[in-house]
Inverse folding.
């Protein structure tokens, strides 16, 4: 059987995006929760909980975007003009958010400003990621191997709904992360916040999931036509188990249980997107193989990825291992 380089690269980029979402998701969610903190001390603890790992999390975004440019140039050339505004706003928001990490500690006189910047950057980045996802799911108009839509095709009721869903979902991840990493008052505060956030996240996932099949007949056929729907039923079954694990964890279970369950919910949603999308790289008309670079370019890039990916995975795993367990409130980011 011939080795399919385009399919392999599509899987690697999807994996990079998924790892970015589950890692940077709780990081952004923590910033979204910043205004709900009860004191400066709580905000200090929230920021300190991600200080050792936050910049490493964003490596996966660079890898996914760079990989798309290198190995799926046609997809990159179509997606960028279609989603230029939300992508640029997301990147600017991440820059402002990164700046606030440094200046918040160095400039305590204006800490209120850097707190607002940290929240605003986190919120805008999450919202733009969700809007870009929604715009991609609803389809991008392609004509003659180029984007043929308008400046604001990315802005629609569906993309706004997915934007809100991602913001609320990231906030849930952030609350569950703090349940895992903290003790005392902030721990109990985040447990209380996580319950309504979980309900809101699940409601929004339900709305988006029911809306998506009606955006394209192909999506509908994947989910509701036999015999394929017998396999896709596994997705809601997994989701039901994860929802049960999430709420039992929040109601007195081990501290790691809500966080792992929330991550599992995001992974399951990502699998659902994959079921709807495959084999499209840019719905509704550009497939993985149509968008891919020549095989020689794919093979050359794959050699680099084979070296780079284990290094990034190893560094990420090592960082989380070193900073595992509950954080010490007397140690922080300076």
């Amino acid at each position: 059987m011939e080795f399919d380089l385009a399919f392999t690269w599509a899987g690697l980029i999807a994996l990079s995006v998924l790892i970015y979402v589950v890692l940077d998701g709780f990081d952004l969610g923590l910033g979204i929760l910043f205004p709900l903190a009860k004191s400066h001390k709580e905000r200090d603890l929230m920021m300190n909980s991600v200080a050792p790992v936050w910049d490493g999390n964003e490596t996966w975004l660079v890898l996914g975007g760079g990989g798309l440019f290198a190995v799926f140039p046609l997809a990159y050339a179509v997606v960028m003009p279609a989603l230029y505004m939300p992508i640029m706003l997301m990147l600017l928001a991440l820059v402002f958010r990164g700046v606030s990490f440094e200046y918040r500690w160095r400039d305590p006189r204006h800490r209120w400003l850097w707190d607002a910047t940290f929240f605003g950057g986190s919120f805008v980045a999450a919202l733009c990621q969700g809007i870009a996802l929604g715009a991609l799911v609803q389809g991008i108009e392609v004509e003659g191997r180029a984007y043929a839509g308008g400046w604001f095709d990315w802005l629609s009721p569906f993309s706004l709904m997915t934007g809100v869903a991602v913001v609320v979902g990231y906030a849930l991840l952030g609350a569950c992360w703090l349940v895992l990493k903290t003790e005392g008052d902030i721990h109990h505060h985040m447990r209380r916040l996580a319950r309504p956030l979980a309900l809101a996240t699940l409601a929004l996932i339900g709305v988006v999931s029911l809306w998506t099949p009606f955006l394209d007949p192909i999506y509908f056929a994947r989910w509701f036509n036999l015999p394929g729907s017998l396999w896709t039923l596994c997705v809601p079954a997994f989701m039901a188990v994860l929802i049960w694990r999430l709420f039992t964890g929040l109601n007195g279970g081990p501290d790691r249980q809500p966080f792992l369950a929330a991550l599992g919910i995001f992974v399951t949603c990502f699998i659902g997107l994959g079921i709807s999308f495959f084999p499209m790289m840019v719905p509704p008309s550009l497939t993985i193989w149509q968008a891919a670079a020549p095989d020689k370019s794919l093979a050359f890039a794959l050699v680099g990825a084979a070296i780079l990916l284990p290094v990034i995975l190893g560094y990420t795993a090592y960082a989380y291992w070193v900073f595992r367990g509950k954080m010490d409130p007397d140690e922080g980011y300076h």
